[in-house]
Structures are given as structure tokens and as C-alpha cells.
Amino acid sequence: METKLFFSKIDASDYPESFKQHLIKGYGEDLPFEDNTFDLVTTYQTLEHVDDVRKCLLELLRVLKPQGILYLRCPDYNCFFEPHYRVPFLPQMNKNLAYFYLNCVLKRPTKGLYTLKWTTRQKIIRVLQKSSLKVNIEDTYTDIISRKIVKNLPFSKSDSFFIKFLAQSYLKIKRVKKSIFKFGRKESQVDLWITKLE
Predict the structure, then answer these.
(1) CA distance 86 to 44
(2) Could you report the per-residue pLDDT of 33-50, keeping only the tens digit for each?
(3) What is the reported pTM?
(4) What is the pLDDT of residues 178-195, one digit of tens each?
(5) Which of 19-33, 61-75, 157-171 shows the highest mean pLDDT?
(6) pLDDT tens-place string over residues 75-113
(7) Would you tell me the crossing angle of helices 121-130 and 53-62 to the nearest 10 degrees?
(8) Using a CB cutoff of 8 Å and minimum separation of 24, what contacts does 108-116 make?
(9) CA–CA separation, 128 and 141 (whole Å)
(10) DSSP-assigned letters across all residues of the chain
(11) At residue 60, does pLDDT exceed 90?
(12) Contact 197/61 with Cβ under 8 angstroms?
């Protein structure tokens, strides 16, 4: 079934027929590749759909070569919006309460609800830091803001901890402002670049 879906996506995108030969069926928790195979691995809006987020993250790191990069993007469920249903939602809402809210109150289908994992930036970073592999984690937004701060400093480059603190403070204030004005109308994202150091 899944292969047919991907084949139809290839056809709909008008990609060459040869693309179908490169599809390899597998699961994120048990990738069919040797250790240290890829320079770049991406997971884009899929991590919240796997059975075991921790196991999947470790597999993604396993197949990366040393100095390889994992680009990871998924919903951050520490916000007041559910991106699949596109409705206001409590952060990491209890699944039974979510079922009642979606099914009984909003009259929405709930078929995939219990398969969703409440991914958050903090949980993902904790898994990466506890792994036996050494990694460098860059928060895309924080690092972009950090570069802007450095560029606009009236003095030469300062302590990186101070700059990161300023960037994170700026982003927290910005997120609070956004959440007030877009309460229940906008999702938050985990957006990380992870470099496997060894």
C-alpha cells in the first residue's frame, strides 16, 4: 500500500520513472542501511508519526557518517495548536481528552489520533544528548538570531554564551507575543541541525 502511494506521488510530480527504482521500504526504528552510510539525513514532518521517537532518532544518527548532518523538523506540541487537525489544542493534551474534544465537540475523525507522538524540542534534544554518540545540536532559529546579533554588535565578537542567551531571550519574547496574538491559530516547529561528531 505505502509503495503505491509513493509511486503515485512520483507520477503526480512528473518525476522520471527511474525514481521508483530508488525507493527502499523500511521503518524509521529499523533502517535497512549499514552504519555510517549517509552524509545527510532529513526527517521532515514525520517524526510525530513513528512508533518510537527515541529509537527512530538513534537509527537516524546510526546511518549518518561522522560529520554528517541530520536535519529534523516536526511539530512542537508545546503549543496551543494541533497542525494535523488545524485546531486550537492544549499542549501535549491527554489523548482521551483529545479524543473527546475532536470527536464529540468538533465532530472530527480521530482515526490517527492515538498514533501521534507529542514531539517537543526539549524531548528530542534530551534523547540526542543522552545517546552514546557525540552530536552538535543547532537550533536553526536561535542560530540565525545569534548571527544577526553578532553582526549588529558595536564591538567585536563577544562571549558565545552571552550571544546565545540574548538570541534565546529574544525568541522567547517573540514566541510569547506570537502566542498571545495567534493563540490557538499557529503551530510551533522543532527545527534542528544535528551534526554527528564521531
Answers:
(1) 18
(2) 999 999 999 999 999 999
(3) 0.74
(4) 555 555 557 788 889 999
(5) 61-75
(6) 999 888 998 899 999 999 999 999 999 999 999 999 989
(7) 50
(8) 112/84, 115/49, 116/48, 116/49, 116/84
(9) 18
(10) -HHHHHHHHHHHTT--GGGGGG----BTTB-SS-TT-EEEEEEES-GGGSS-HHHHHHHHHHTEEEEEEEEEEEEESSSSEETTTTEE--TT--HHHHHIIIIIIS----TTGGG-----HHHHHHHHHHSSS-EEEEEHHHHHHHHHHHHH-SSS---HHHHHHHHHHHHHHHHHHHHHHTTTT--EEEEEEEEE--
(11) yes
(12) no
Is residue 167 classed exposed, middle or buried when 0-12, 13-18 and 19+ CB atoms within 10 A define those classes?
buried
Residue 5 grid cell: 502511494
- CA dist 151 and 156 (Å) reads 9
User: Is the model's pLDDT at 177 over the cut of 90?
Assistant: no
Phi, psi of 154, rounded to the nearest 5 degrees: -75, -5
The count of residues in the chain is 198
CB 77 within 8 A of CB 122: no
Which residue is associated with the grid cell 549518518? 64
